[in-house]
Design brief:
about 450 residues, alpha/beta, Rossmann fold, Dihydrodipicolinate Reductase, domain 2, 2 domains, ten-stranded mixed beta sheet, globular, binds nicotinamide-adenine-dinucleotide
C-alpha cells in the first residue's frame, strides 16, 4: 500500500548527523532534480492541458502534529490538487507510514533556505507557537500563503504585526482551527440564527481529557509559559482545548452577527503537576451585547468527555460535541452525527483560486478575540496546585495519570450553568482573576 520512502527524503542530512543548520538535501531534491523545477518532479506543476498551476506546498514543522498535516496533504498530492515540494524540521524527519514522503520532495532544516530553494505557493506552519510569527512573516515575504497552526500568535501585538504583513503582501492566512470547518457547527449556527433556541443567554463548553506525565515531556515548551526567557503558550485552554474556546467564540459571533470583542475575562486556573500553566480551568469571557461564554476544561479528568459546546437559549438548548460533530438541537430525541468537514487546506486552495467566491473558514481576523483572550490567560496569575486528597494518581513512569476527584461533575455544572468553580461552592476553588481586555482593532 505504501511506497518505500527514499532514505534521503526521510532523514536528510540531519538524520546522518549533519549540523542542524544544513539542508537535508543540498541539491534541493533527493531525486537530483533542479530545486523546485518540474523536470524531476513526480507531478508536473502544470498538468497536461489544464494550463493551471498546481500549488506547491511545503510543511514547516514536519514532525509532531506536522505528521497529521502530512497525512492530510498526501491524498491531495496523490489527486494532483497540490504538490508537496518540501518538508522542514530542525529534527530529522520522522517516518509517517500513512504519508510517505513523495519522490522529489526536498527536506530542509531551515525554513528560509527552503523558501528560497523550493519556492512554495502555500506553507503549512506547524512549529511551536512562539516560533509562529517570525516564520509566518518570512513565508509572506517570500510570496506564499499560510496555513498557520493554532494558536496563531501569542499576543494582540503579534496579531497586529501579522495582519499588517498580510495586508502589505496581499497573501492569505488560514489558522488551524479545523473544527470551524464542521457542517455540524454550521447547522448549530443556522439553528441559532433561526431563533430555535429563543434568545441565547449563555454559551458553555466542557471537556475532560487525560494526559500522562509523558505529555509534559514531549517538547521543550510543554507545560511552560516561558522558555529561555521568551513567552511560550501551553496549557489546556491555549493548546489542546483551544478548539473548545474557539467554537464558543464562533457561536457567539453568530448570536450577535458581529465579531466578538471580549471586554473582560474571569479566570480560575489549576494544575495537578509542577507545570507553569493550567491543566484545569474555568474561564468566563464577557462580551458587550453578547452572551457570556464559560469554558470548563481539564486534562486531569476522571472520564473522557471529548468536548461539548452547550448553547442555552430562552426556549431551548443545543449541544455540539465538536470533535465528533454530534449535534443535539431542541426537540431532537438524541444527538445525531452531522457528517462533513471542510478541510482547511482544501479551503485555502479554493480561496487562492477564487478569493471572492470562496472565503476562508478560519482567516486570521476571525481569531483576534481568541488571541486577545489567550494573551491574558498567559499573563494571569500562576495556576493553583491541586494535590493531597484532591487528586488520584494511577499508573507509573511516563504513563502515570493524575485525576482530580469529582472534576467531571463540577465542570459539567460550570458549563451548563455558566458558572466558575468558585461560584459553585467547590471547596477547593479559588477566587477568579478578573482581567479587563483592551479594545481590539477591526
Ligand atoms: N490543530 C490541532 O488540532 C493541533 C493539534 C496539535 C498541535 N497543534 C499545534 O501545532 C503546532 C505544533 O505542535 P507540536 O505539538 O507538533 O509541537 P512540537 O514542539 O512537537 O513541534 C513540532 C515540530 O516543529 C519542529 N520545529 C521546532 N522549531 C522549528 C523551526 N524553527 N523550524 C522548523 N521546525 C521546527 C520540531 O522539531 C517538531 O518536530 C503548535 O502550534 C500546536 O498548538 C494543533
Amino acid at each position: 500500500m505504501t511506497a518505500p520512502v527514499p532514505p534521503a527524503a526521510v532523514g536528510g542530512l540531519a538524520a546522518q548527523g549533519a549540523p542542524a543548520a544544513t539542508t537535508g538535501t543540498p541539491s534541493g531534491s533527493p531525486t537530483g532534480a533542479p530545486p523546485g523545477g518540474p523536470a524531476g518532479a513526480a507531478r508536473p506543476d502544470h498538468p497536461a492541458g489544464t494550463g493551471v498551476a498546481v500549488p506547491r506546498v511545503a510543511i514547516v514543522g514536519a514532525n509532531g502534529h506536522g505528521r497529521w498535516h502530512r497525512r492530510a496533504v498526501a491524498p491531495l498530492h496523490a489527486a494532483g490538487r497540490l504538490r508537496l515540494v518540501a518538508l522542514v524540521d530542525v529534527r530529522p524527519i520522522e517516518d509517517e507510514p500513512a504519508a510517505p514522503v513523495p519522490p522529489g520532495t526536498t527536506v530542509h532544516t531551515d525554513h528560509r533556505e527552503m523558501l528560497a530553494a523550493a519556492r512554495p505557493d502555500v506553507v503549512i506552519v506547524c512549529t511551536p507557537p512562539h516560533t509562529h510569527l517570525p516564520i509566518a512573516l518570512d513565508v509572506l515575504a517570500a510570496g506564499a500563503d499560510l496555513l498557520l497552526e493554532k494558536p496563531p500568535v501569542l499576543s494582540t501585538a503579534e496579531h497586529r504585526t501579522l495582519a499588517g504583513a498580510l495586508a502589505a503582501t496581499g497573501r492569505a492566512c488560514q489558522v488551524g482551527f479545523q473544527a470551524l470547518g464542521s457542517v455540524a457547527l454550521a447547522q448549530l449556527s443556522a439553528a441559532v440564527g433561526q431563533g430555535r433556541l429563543g434568545t441565547v443567554t449563555g454559551i458553555g463548553t466542557v471537556a475532560c481529557w487525560q494526559r500522562p506525565d509523558s505529555y509534559y515531556a514531549r517538547s521543550p515548551w510543554a507545560g511552560r509559559r516561558t522558555l529561555h526567557g521568551r513567552p511560550v503558550l501551553d496549557g489546556a485552554l491555549a493548546n489542546p482545548l483551544a478548539h473548545a474556546v474557539m467554537q464558543c467564540l464562533a457561536v457567539a459571533e453568530t448570536v450577535t452577527g458581529t465579531p466578538v470583542r471580549p471586554a473582560r475575562i474571569e479566570l480560575e486556573r489549576y494544575r495537578v503537576r509542577p507545570i507553569e500553566v493550567d491543566d484545569t480551568a474555568t474561564l468566563r469571557i464577557v462580551t458587550p451585547g453578547g452572551p457570556p461564554i464559560v469554558a470548563a476544561v481539564t486534562l486531569a479528568g476522571e472520564d473522557f468527555v471529548a468536548g461539548e459546546v452547550i448553547v442555552t437559549g430562552t426556549t431551548g438548548r443545543a449541544v455540539l460535541e465538536y470533535p465528533t460533530d454530534r449535534l443535539l438541537l431542541p426537540g431532537d430525541p438524541h444527538p445525531e452525527e452531522v457528517p462533513g468537514r471542510q478541510g482547511l487546506l482544501a479551503n485555502l486552495l479554493a480561496h487562492r483560486a477564487d478569493p471572492d467566491g470562496t472565503p476562508l473558514i478560519a482567516p486570521l481576523a476571525r481569531t483576534a478575540p481568541f488571541t486577545a483572550v489567550l494573551e491574558q490567560v498567559r499573563q494571569a496569575p500562576e495556576p493553583t496546585l491541586l494535590d493531597g486528597d484532591l487528586v488520584t494518581a494511577a499508573g507509573s513512569g511516563p504513563e502515570r495519570v493524575v485525576t482530580v476527584r469529582g472534576i467531571n461533575a463540577v465542570l459539567r455544572r460550570a458549563a451548563e450553568q455558566g458558572a466558575l468553580l468558585s461560584e459553585l461552592a467547590v471547596p477547593w476553588a479559588v477566587p477568579p482573576a478578573r482581567i479587563p481586555l483592551a479594545a481590539q482593532d477591526d
